[in-house]
Amino acid sequence: MAHNARGQVSEARSRLLGTATRLFYTEGIHSVGIDRIVAEAKVTRATLYRHFPGKEDLVVAYLQAVDQMERDQVGKALGSGRPAVDTVRAIAESIADGIRSAGFRGCAFLNAVAEYPDPEHPVHKTVLAHREWFLRTITDLLAQVGETPPELAARHFVMLRDGAMAEGCLADPVEVCDTFLQGVDGLLQHRTGSTSRGSGAKTA
């Protein structure tokens, strides 16, 4: 990461990454060329290549920035001191908030991997690294909820999340989020053996 003389992240790099993030997410990665990014970020090609040797590096940086944002969101839930079951619900609620937000265009990682299907490509590997972290985080939380092995339930949570992220830009996001949150609540009820809904759950 490039820094200026004061040790701060370069303004040009931040502007490039911000512009690329907006365009990649809203319009797709392959459809956005370097010339467009350079023009909208108001930098030269030389400046772009000084910070990012190629478009592939810019795409990876974009996904890493989204990854960090999601890690920060999850970190807030993990650091709240709440019981694991409530932490899982808080993470689900944050996902639902994203789906209901203006300009939602699906999951940045699922969108990216659809454009980079080669498992050996750096972009594909960046997506997998993010998903492995998320699955591991949910697995660790669900290990604290109920007594059965958590792996299946964690994969179930991730599949619910993936489905909601895909459906959220195709159908009514409110209904999608209600369905997603009810699914997460049902998963938690199954693990705890409870039939009552938590205070943060949606009712049918």
Could you characterize the architecture of this molecule?
- The chain has 204 residues and is an all-alpha fold.
- The protein has 2 domains: 1-53, Arc Repressor Mutant, subunit A; 55-192, Tetracycline Repressor, domain 2 (Orthogonal Bundle).
- It has helices spanning 11-27, 34-41, 45-51, 55-78, 84-100, 108-115, 122-142, 151-167, 173-192.
- The termini are far apart.
- The model is unreliable at 1-8 and 195-204 (pLDDT under 50).
List keywords for this structure.
9 helices; 204 residues; single chain; Tetracycline Repressor, domain 2; disordered C terminus; elongated; 2 domains; Arc Repressor Mutant, subunit A
Brief sketch in words of this structure:
With 204 residues, the protein is an all-alpha fold. Helices cover 68% and strands 0% of the residues. The chain has 2 domains: 1-53, Homeodomain-like (Arc Repressor Mutant, subunit A); 55-192, Tetracycline Repressor, domain 2 (Orthogonal Bundle).
